[in-house]
Design a protein that fits this description.
This protein is an alpha/beta fold and 195 residues long. The protein has one domain: Flavodoxin domain (Rossmann fold), CATH 3.40.50. The protein is built from seven helices and seven strands. It has a five-stranded parallel sheet with strand order 2-1-3-6-7, with helices on both faces. A two-stranded antiparallel sheet has the order 4-5. A hairpin with a 7-residue loop joins strand 4 and strand 5. It starts with 5 loop residues before the first strand and ends with a helix. The model has no long low-confidence stretch (mean pLDDT 94).
């Protein structure tokens, strides 16, 4: 086994109902990771006290909410982030976007820098996006070009220095139980590898 990693699971489903498949995927990843000796911390976006950022002043100057401060500490601690979410209207759910706007504030995720180029403060971390959707994943890749996943990677994660970023796209999420169990096994395996 490779060295034990610090793994941060960000469960981005806005519905806290435990029946949501995203939660089961996050649970299975955590099981695989802890069984292999990795340290795991989890952020469940649906359970956070999460105000929406409404102004640049709020984003840059106002105090950071307690749940966001804790999330930032977890992200800073992590070697690898696993971010799971359902594709809603072709993008991340609004609550996950609100979380990202809060957590990726200047001073924590990046420094604006005097030259106009920001200094990436989360370098040295890697990530994996796990995205569920109703349509076939192949159709999402071929027809839509995985546009929201690419945007997330380029405009948020790489912007703050997190790279490389892997992807798991799970299409036909309402498919049969056997297919869902196969995805759960795959997430458990990724967790055991810390990937």
């Amino acid at each position: 086994m490779t060295r034990a990693l610090h793994l941060c699971i960000i469960d981005g489903h806005p519905d806290p109902d435990p029946a949501r498949f995203i939660h089961a995927l996050a649970d299975r990843y955590a099981q695989g990771a802890t069984a292999s000796g990795h340290e795991v911390r989890r952020i469940d976006v649906a359970k956070l006290d999460l105000p929406i950022v409404r102004s640049r002043h709020q984003w840059e100057e106002e105090p950071i909410p307690a749940d966001i401060r804790t999330a930032q500490e977890t992200i800073a601690w992590a070697d690898h982030l696993v971010i799971l979410y359902p594709l809603w209207l072709g993008d991340v759910p609004a609550l996950l976007k609100a979380f990202l706007e809060q957590v990726m504030r200047p001073g924590f995720a990046f420094d604006p820098g005097g030259s106009g180029l920001p200094r990436k403060k989360l370098k040295g971390r890697t990530a994996r996006l796990v995205v569920t959707m109703g349509m076939p994943a192949l159709f999402y890749r071929a027809y839509y070009g995985s546009h929201s996943v690419k945007s997330f990677e380029r405009n948020i994660l790489r912007f703050v220095g997190i790279r490389p970023v892997g992807h798991v796209l799970i299409g036909n999420v309402e498919s049969d139980a056997e297919a869902r169990e196969e995805w759960l096994r795959e997430l458990q395996q990724l967790g055991s590898l810390g990937n």
